[in-house]
Amino acid sequence: MELTRIKQIVNSPSETEVIYNGVSVWIDQVHENGRMATVHLRNANEERSEVDIEELEEVIH
């Protein structure tokens, strides 16, 4: 996913669905390097993970 779109999603009040490794996640933060983001599972406020933003996928309904 592109950095610009991820920043739009993070700053948006809407609930855009994002998938990481086949699982729906919330994007908590985009790191300053612009290549990594912190995410956590949507169904629970569980452990956060740092992931490469290229591995995130926006779900278009």
Gross morphology is globular
- Relative strand content: 35-45%
Spatially, the strands of the biggest sheet line up as 4-3-2-1-5
Chain-averaged pLDDT: 91
Order of helices and strands: HEEEEE
Q: Round the Cα radius of gyration to an integer and report it.
A: 10 Å
CATH 2nd-level architecture: Roll
First-to-last CA distance: 16 Å
Structural class: mainly beta
The CATH topology label is SH3 type barrels
CATH class: Mainly Beta
The level of helicity is 10-25%
Quickly list its features.
single chain; 61 residues; mainly beta; SH3 type barrels
Give a structural overview.
With 61 residues, this protein is mainly β. The protein has a single domain, classed as SH3 type barrels. Helices cover 13% and strands 39% of the residues. The chain has 1 helix and 5 strands; from the N terminus they run H-E-E-E-E-E. A 5-stranded antiparallel sheet has the order 4-3-2-1-5. A hairpin with a 7-residue loop joins strand 3 and strand 4. The longest helix is centred in the first third of the chain and has 8 residues, at 3-10. The chain is globular.
Please outline what is shown here.
The chain has about 60 residues and is mainly beta.
Topology summary:
Elements: H1 3-10, E1 18-20, E2 23-30, E3 36-41, E4 49-52, E5 56-58
Antiparallel strand pairs: 1-2, 1-5, 2-3, 3-4
